[in-house]
Amino acid sequence: MSDVTDTTERRPARTSEVRAGAPVALDLLIRGCRGIAWYVHNLMGDNAYRVYLDHHLANHGAEHPPLTEREFWRERMDDQDRNPGARCC
To answer: Domain-by-domain residue ranges, the chain?
Structure first.
């Protein structure tokens, strides 16, 4: 037998390389899902009352109290009934 030792470097296993990249891929997936959720919430008007409160505070301040959430949604639905726009029904 010879006394020659193996001098080739061992390469790290591929599984550790994949695991190192997993947090980046997972982060991208989570960010994508959050973006889609944000879009759907805006499209459906889920945050309309919060947007109204921000607008009211910026433009009207404390001189006029804002509508309650119930009053806001009632006014919004009544406005949509008065002005149907491009709705089908």
So the answer is: 12-44, 47-83
